[in-house]
Amino acid sequence: MTEVRLLLTQKSATLVLTIGSNVVEQETWKFDTPAPRRELRDIGECVFNDCYDLMNYATHGAAG
To answer: What's the rounded Cα separation, in Å, for the pair 48 and 27?
Structure first.
């Protein structure tokens, strides 16, 4: 199992890659000022949409 997790809060963003039960990579970015909730929502939607498109391409190819 491979898991990619992005956690967005007003104070920071954390990206984690877990393979099996091992955390392979983890990075945290702290925002200089609290991030607006709208901006965090937009970032989350953008990341989700990009992952969705990637998985559709990986599953169905360019015709999907």
So the answer is: 18
C-alpha dist (Å) from residue 12 to 19, 31, 44, 63: 23, 5, 13, 38
- Whole-number Å distance between alpha carbons of 23 and 60: 29
Q: What is the pLDDT of residues 47-60, one digit of tens each?
A: 999 999 999 999 99
Q: How many domains does the chain have?
A: 1
State how far the Cα of 64 lies from the Cα of 56, in Å rounded to an integer: 7
Quickly count: other Cβ atoms within 10 Å of residue 4's Cβ: 12
Parent domain of 14: 2-60
Cut 0.90: pTM above it: no
